[in-house]
Amino acid sequence: MTPTAPAVRCDGVVQIYKTREVEVVALRDIDLVVEDGESVALLGPSGAGKTTLLWLLAGLLRPSAGRLWLGGAEVGRLGPRALDRLRAAQIGVVLQNPARNLVPYASAAQNVAFAQRAVRRRSRQRTDDLLERVGLAPLRDRPAGLLSGGEQQRLAVAVALANRPRLLLADEPTSQLDAGSAAAVVELIKEMGPTSVVVTHDPGVGEAMSRTVTIRDGRIGAEGRDGEDFVVIGREGAVQLPPEYHGLLPPGSMARVEPVRDGVILRRAEP
Ligand code: ADP
Ligand code: MG
């Protein structure tokens, strides 16, 4: 990654899953820039496309259309080995299913150490520090497969941070944690993941991040900064009204657009 490039840039990214019978458009026209140092909470209902976007940012999927840069490197122009190297050196990932991040028969400490070996930065001290930070120091020698779901989730975060990634991507990393452990994990991510994108349903996690991005129906519908929420005007001028206003302007209803000095007002056209 080049130091001046943003950590992530998506330009018109589209992701289509093709199964035998149907094509699912999981993401359409995603424009997104994440600057170095930002922490982004990715919000949105189930099926909106959050996991798909995270997989794209992790280099685990290549976009069906559009362009995606991780650091200065355009994913579409990297061969498989160059992409693997970039991922191992620069990106830490916590997948949605905690067990999938871990080697089940290896101990908690070995799982963290393996992740460091991938970039030849192994250090016993760092392993112990990370396990301590996620509250797993007493369980360091237990096989990961024998940990509870919440313990596996905390271990997965430690593993993702083990190689000091420039970009940390985490998919609902606190879904199985109580409030106290969730707060500790968020603290750790903010401290050690200098740039992070975290999918979450937890409003507490969203508040801890510098920015929120909300996806609905495969599009970025809203963004929040410093506690204020904004809708995002899409490529063709499309706006997703927040669901709390669907009562005033139900989907499918007609509205008048009234220009004013600094924007427009939408008013329902009475039938
Ligand atoms: P979220 O994480 O926001 O719940 P996903 O990214 O998992 O959403 O899914 C977005 C859409 O893509 C959903 O309609 C989902 O059913 C579909 N989808 C996800 N993965 C696949 C796949 N491997 N094959 C086909 N469809 C998929
Ligand atoms: Mg998901």
Automatic annotation (TrEMBL):
Pfam families, sorted: ABC_tran
Keywords assigned by UniProt, alphabetized: ATP-binding, Nucleotide-binding
Annotated SMART domains: AAA
Molecular function per GO: ATP binding
Domain annotation ABC transporter: ranges: 8-242
Source taxon at top rank: Bacteria
PANTHER family, alphabetized: ABC TRANSPORTER RELATED, IMPORT ATP-BINDING PROTEIN
Protein known as: ABC transporter ATP-binding protein
Species, as recorded: Microbispora corallina
The organism's taxonomic lineage, starting at the top: Bacteria, Bacillati, Actinomycetota, Actinomycetes, Streptosporangiales
